[in-house]
Amino acid sequence: MNLFGRIKNELNRNTILRSLRFRLGVIIMLVGLLCCLVMRFGIMESYFSRAVEVRTSDVQNQIKILADHLITYNYLQDQSSDVVNAELNMLSNLYDGRVLIINNSFKVIKDTYNVSQGKTIISEEVIRCFKGESVSNYDDNNNYIEITVPITMTIDGETEVVGVILTSVSSDSIVTNQE
């Protein structure tokens, strides 16, 4: 008799593998394992989306405070304020990101990476922000959150958008925590 024939004979003689109790036990274990896997991935996805929402909210609050300081220190006309420049660098370092200040001519007047200063930036998010709408997007391919917040000023009782803060912050720490 060959090896496969011997194994088949042993399995036929072994009554434990043929019993209903054993088969039900295996089925219950497989169903339990399947439920655990579904719950794990569902919980992780829920955690990740909630973590991105919290990070976005935190950054938006910081940017709104910064926008008020830009108006207070007249930063859109004179970028020499050490207080505002320190806040911009702190925000950029704190969230491992980049901050762009854009005036109403779509010119970048401050870039914390010093790459795009003086350049014109026109994007859908910036245009929507000049219409008064804050926009946030999450790019899961590159693991960053992009947020635009309008810089508003009240002139003669009317609120006018005089600039935009465009911020890109890393979500690598969220991805690392998820793993």
Characteristics of this structure?
single chain, 179 residues, alpha+beta, 5-stranded antiparallel beta sheet, 6 helices, 5 strands
Description:
- The protein has 179 residues and is an alpha+beta fold.
- Helix content is 53%, strand content 23%.
- Strand 1 and strand 2 form a beta hairpin.
- Helix 3 runs antiparallel to helix 4.
- Secondary-structure element order, as H and E? HHHHEEHEEEH
Radius of gyration: 28 Å
Q: What number is the mean pLDDT? A: 87
Ranges where pLDDT stays below 50 over 5 or more residues in a row are none
Helix content bin: 40-55%
What is the distance, rounded to the nearest whole angstrom, between the alpha carbons of the first and last residues?
Answer: 51 Å
What does this entry show, briefly?
With 179 residues, this protein is of the alpha+beta class.
List the topology elements.
Layout: H1 3-13, H2 15-18, H3 20-72, H4 82-94, E1 97-103, E2 108-111, H5 124-130, E3 135-139, E4 144-155, E5 158-170, H6 172-178
Antiparallel strand pairs: 1-2, 1-5, 3-4, 4-5
Helix pairs in contact: 3-4
